[in-house]
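hey so i finally got around to running the thing on that chain from the lab meeting. sorry it took forever, my laptop kept dying and i had to restart like 3 times. anyway pasting the input first so we r on the same page abt which one it is
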Amino acid sequence: MTHATAPLPRQPGLMTLAGPMFIELSLMIAVGLVGTALAARLSDATGFGAHGLPAIRPLADVERDHILGVLEAVGGNRTKAAAALGIGIATLFRKLKEYHV
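ok and heres what got predicted. didnt touch it at all, straight out
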């Protein structure tokens, strides 16, 4: 089985792990294919913990960052953001009001 993998960073801060890459690295760490020294280096570069798990953040912070990221991705269009998030426009407006946006 052949699959594409992204190169590991040569310097801290050159990439952020997300999606399939995060899962692949987590599995490699779990089965011992990646040592703890490399995991620690990636942790410093990406904000992921030593075992490939993301740093623990409150759910409210994650939700806020995601909502604001989606809003930015759709150019500030709140109707499109609500649709992309799968929430009603009133819910989006309420959350943005809570965030003072």
